[in-house]
């Protein structure tokens, strides 16, 4: 059996595949594969393990319908035509849970770096502008006892809420389709309507999937419903916010600041004006990038491949 892997992944996952007798081909060039290259490489493979931004659309799946499994090196699966995979009986695996804490830690980090204008002050030092003490310059805002609004309270949102509660005794609001009983019981979280979340939160942290319903949900109209002192944090998918509207909301002081680990589009243009605003901190989609987490993701992605090739249920499957 053969697997094609679209990136060099941690050894922990490769070893499991080798131990299962699977032949591995990895794409080692430092660029995305084109759609044609991806199809070409998958023609001779029984499984695809994909990391990065490759689009696994209907055309790809139909051209490679012989694949016995598609294994994603991510929790998100918005890049995959799931309905087509299901129709073609190709199971799609992903890597939830193992990256929840690392990703939530980046949301927590961005909330704090934004609130204290950390990247702006770092840049001042680089620019030789650290001269004398100015009591009223470059001030941040306090987070103690403020209100966190979690948009999409699943495993990652829960970890973010827990950190905010523990570190800053923040009140937790959330907006979800379902009720999160654990968050309500352990963190005193309160489920509210989307409009209430916008109106009452001092920090809004996005932890939802990108879907038709969430695409650019954070836009001119919704930023206008947020508090002028609010910080918008997005570590989920850049497509959930409209970036031009976010820039305008920050420039016009409709909201106070933004911390982004995901941008719309990715990669972000280095000339993007957001990068020059003092109340904005942007990271290049590093939510899950710790050594331990990436090892766990590689192991889970490999287990999904192995199960798929053995016609067994994948440990973490997206489509039934
Ligand atoms: C995920 O796991 O979905 C990360 O955002 C990487 O894409």
Walkthrough of the structure:
- The two termini are 23 Å apart.
- A seven-stranded parallel β-sheet has the order 8-7-6-9-10-11-12, with helices on both faces. The protein has a five-stranded parallel β-sheet with strand order 2-1-3-4-5.
- Helix 1 links the parallel strand 1 and strand 2.
- It is an alpha/beta fold and 320 residues long.
- The site of (2R)-2,3-dihydroxypropanoic acid has 6 residues, from loops.
In short:
With 320 residues, this protein is of the alpha/beta class.
Number of separate strands = 12
- What is the number of helical segments per DSSP (H or I, 4+ residues)? 12
Going by CATH, the architecture of the largest domain would be 3-Layer(aba) Sandwich
Roughly what percent helix?
Answer: 25-40%
Q: Please write the CATH class name of the largest domain.
A: Alpha Beta
Global mean pLDDT: 97
Associated small molecules: (2R)-2,3-dihydroxypropanoic acid
Structural classification: alpha/beta
Number of domains: 2
SSE order and pairing:
Elements: E1 2-5, H1 11-19, E2 23-26, H2 35-43, E3 47-50, H3 58-63, E4 69-72, H4 82-87, E5 92-93, H5 100-115, H6 118-126, E6 147-151, H7 155-168, E7 171-175, H8 181-187, E8 190-191, H9 194-200, E9 203-206, H10 220-223, E10 231-234, H11 243-251, E11 257-260, E12 280-282, H12 291-309
Parallel strand pairs: 1-2, 1-3, 3-4, 4-5, 6-7, 6-9, 7-8, 9-10, 10-11, 11-12
The protein binds (2R)-2,3-dihydroxypropanoic acid (DGY).
